[in-house]
Amino acid sequence: MKYAAPPYMHDVLPFEPSKDKWLHSAKWRTLERIFEDICISYGYKQIRTPVMEQTELFLRSIGQGTDIVSKEMFTFTDRGGRSMTLRPEGTAPAIRAYVEHNLHTENSLVKLYYIASIYRYERGQKGRFREHQQTGVEAIGSKDPALDAEIITLAMGFYECLGIPSTELKLNSVGCPVCRPKYREALLEFARPRLDKMSEDNRMRFDVNPLRMLDSKDERDKRALEGVPIFLDHLCAECQEHFKALKSYLDALSVPYVLDTNLVRGFDYYTKTAFEIICPALGAQNAIGGGGRYDGLVEVIGGTPTPGIGFGIGTERCLLALDQLGISLPMDDASPMVFVAALGDETKLTAAKLVHELRRSGVPTDTDYSQRRLKLQMRQSDKLGAKYMLIIGPEEIERGEAVVKKMTGEKDQVNIPISNVVQFFRELYKSRGASCQDDE
Q1: Are the C-beta atoms of residues 188 and 208 closer than 8 Å to each other?
Q2: Residue 437: pLDDT band by 50, 70, 90 thresholds?
Q3: Span 364-385, pLDDT tens digits
Q4: 338-429 has which fold?
Q5: Beta-carbon contacts of residue 423 (< 8 Å; ≥ 6 apart)
Q6: How many degrees, rounded to 5, is the angle at CA 359 between CA 17 and CA 402?
Q7: How many angstroms separate the CA atoms of 384 and 376, rounded?
Q8: For domain 25-179+235-325, which architecture applies?
Q9: The Cα angle at residue 281 between residues 279 and 282, in degrees rounded to 5
Q10: Is residue 66 within 8 Å of 95, Cβ to Cβ?
């Protein structure tokens, strides 16, 4: 029997694959480090939530009329008879944790970031997977539009750090419980005589969740909804003022945006600000991130009324964009600084002690466990990208010395006392920094 990864899920490998080069763990690690660095610079702290939650959490927060709830969730009954769902998005679990642990007592504005696997049973294709990784942030406790601008600039700054130059910010306001019912009626009145020209999905949305009709990618629906009433024309005074202020902040910060009056995002909990970031180079599946404000979500989940805003960014979509644009990330060097080669059984104990002491001193070190000849061990050292080889044979043991051979540039070598090996490499590693880059 042959086993393989489940459909539209993937393995991220320690070596660059010949195909799908973006499935290289070094690239993922670099992207995550860049994301964490920018989040920390904005004052956000990490949160980690379980991979599964009670199904009711997502039914109440995302909305039963959404495609995610009606078609895409991985839901099952556990052995205790509870309905559980693999996390289909990152915001609801973070807000559940915020409410459960009373995080508002720590600070009036709680700023969180996460890196999490997301699960949706949808039609798989390039850039759309049933398991994907999402990086995201949540800022809970303020309704100030300046915070909306901070969230957006954080997201855009992340793409800039990745080197993705061709992103586009799409912006809209989806109103609030005060003005949304009025727009809903205008939308229903416009769409009712056009239902026979729409897809089956949109006809169902008309009865269950009409705002979702605007998010349809079906060309029939797009044609039928040409000239649809614009949400921005139906905003209440508060929502108008909030959106006007947000645009002023973005203009002041020189963040370009495009108004997309049909942008509603995929969750019912959004209020006021909704935004999406696309990379046109990706083709049809070009959305690489998005988010918005959710001023009623904390209350829905059981907390006191608290405003909030956040976003989620797809890791795979970012890596695919980098791949298609021919952009290489400056990956962290995971190569060992030292490769210890032991020649003969009588040297293995000494070599093992040196490997152990070097590692405990923080010096990246590897060794051979196959008792191969020196030539083969040198070949293994080259494959691993080691900067130096430490060679210990019977003669070296007798003299109390070890051979240090430089593996890059001019491959010179020196003999040093075995008792000085750890100190020698500790100082060398410290002087070169954690990147272990060779001297010019």
Answers
A1: no
A2: very low
A3: 999 999 888 999 999 999 999 9
A4: Rossmann fold (3.40.50)
A5: none
A6: 105
A7: 13
A8: 2-Layer Sandwich (3.30)
A9: 80
A10: no
